[in-house]
Each structure stands twice: as structure tokens, then as C-alpha cells.
Amino acid sequence: QVQLVESGGGLVQPGGSLRLSCAASGNIFRIYAMGWYRQAPGKQRELVAAVTRSGSTNYAGSVKGRFTISRDNAKNTVYLQMSSLKPEDTAVYYCNAEITPIADTTSTYWGQGTQVTVSS
User: Fold this and answer.
1) Alpha-carbon distance 64 to 91, whole Å?
2) pLDDT confidence of 120, banded at 50, 70, 90?
3) Residue of 75, 91, 88, 79 whose CA lies nearest to 41
4) Of residues 1, 4, 10, 2, the one with CA closest to residue 111
5) What is the pLDDT of residues 31-57, one digit of tens each?
6) 54-71 burial string, b = 16+ CB within 10 Å, else e?
7) Half-sphere exposure of residue 73, counting CA atoms within 13 Å on the CB side?
8) CB 17, CB 2: distance < 8 Å
9) Per-residue pLDDT reduced to its tens digit, 79-95
């Protein structure tokens, strides 16, 4: 069974920084793209950033230049370094990954979400 477990959320003042982590565990054969999504109250879930297995990245325009996504394939972990945080970054952040489990087909997996609140 494959699981994604996020950590690193919390309360931060505007202009501050946070680092989110998401570790995949279980019967994993290979992990392809990994990413972070967020969902603010009353809004649809949106892509924040994604990274391919080879390290190519993609960012939402609203976070480009402030957030950095990275991954450690040896640890099956993806990170999101968030800087210059704004109140509008407040949301539940979800980890997402395309994973092929051992002896199974590739599927999309989601973490449970971690709250990020940007407020003074």
C-alpha cells in the first residue's frame, strides 16, 4: 500500500518562509511526476508546482519566483520551499504523485493535506 505523508505546514507571518515535505512510502516500484496543489476555502484545488523524475519543474504564475519545488528520488520525497509568503497563499496544501507500485499499475496518489496560514 502506497502512502504520501506531508509535513511542515503551520502559521507564518507575511513575508516569512516555510518548507513543506512529502514522503512516499509503501510497495513502490517507481515514482514519476510529483507536485503540490492547494485549496483555499471556497476555491477549487489548484496546481502550485510540479517536478518530473528528471527534475524539470513547472510553477503556477502566482508563486513563480517565490516557491521552489525539489525532490530527492533516493528518499522518495518532494519538497516545497515557500518564501515571501502572502496572505493569499493561505490554503491546505496537498502532495500529489504518479506512482507505480510493485506488481500494480500506475496511479495518482494524494497526501492528507497540511494547513498553511499566512497572517499577522
Assistant:
1) 17
2) very high
3) 91
4) 4
5) 999 999 999 999 999 999 999 999 999
6) eeeeebeeebeeebbbeb
7) 11
8) no
9) 999 999 999 999 999 99
